[in-house]
């Protein structure tokens, strides 16, 4: 049997299993389920995101947030994922899923600000949305939407059919979203 690659230890010394820390997860919500906002459409999510977003920074830097919901679309919380620069921000899918699992979310909606004011999804936006949707599905979490926000407007991947039943490859999506499709 092959051993895992581990840090070398003194083979004459027994392992100190009791020194290992147990991981504990907890989540406390101060509102009763009936008091939590319910999200039925992209405009509901937009309104909630706008209440937690710093409008003064929206045209300055790109940032990413995630709305966590239970099976009945009741809001469990909003997670601030990252703040980047003028042209992008880091989206760590592992951390997003860790937060979703820890809060016991069944559904999520993500959003990012677009300092340029351009609401057209970039190839990177399309790719991260597809990757997050696939990864969340493995955990029985449904990605309902990805919103791109500016101070004046928004774009909804769900409203535009990107998160629907039919999946196109990312390149074809890029062509369609940028109206470059040639017949």
TrEMBL record:
CDD domains: MPN_DUF2466 (cd08071). Residues 38-163 form the MPN domain. One of its GO terms (molecular function) is metal ion binding. One of its GO terms (biological process) is proteolysis. InterPro entries: MPN (IPR037518), RadC_JAB (IPR025657), UPF0758 (IPR001405). Keywords: Hydrolase, Metal-binding, Metalloprotease, Protease, Zinc. This is JAB domain-containing protein. It comes from Rhizosphaericola mali.
